Amino acid sequence: MGAPTNDTNVLRRLEELVEGSEVWEITRCYRMHRYRHSDAQRQTVEVEIMFNRDSGWKVTATDSARGISASGPPHHDLNVVMATVRWQDLDAPAVPPQRSVDT
Prior knowledge:
The protein is an alpha+beta fold. About 15% of the residues lie in helices and about 35% in strands. The protein has two helices and four strands, in the order αββββα.
């Protein structure tokens, strides 16, 4: 799969806003219903496929209801990225909500 064809000028302008920033273009978003092996339940996972011209592709899968996510290292081949996402991380126990501390 090749690079996205969106306006690269917008991405460059975003990168120029903050020196040294790294901008990832979200090229696709999916909702996946997945069987969770840890407790034999189904879970809803949001999958974002992102692209950066220097780093290549990156995939992040998030179960926002449970506060957990899975990802893998970026690579220029999307098939490699999909194979290296740590999907098993989505089987982990839910992350308890963080309480804010008043100072």
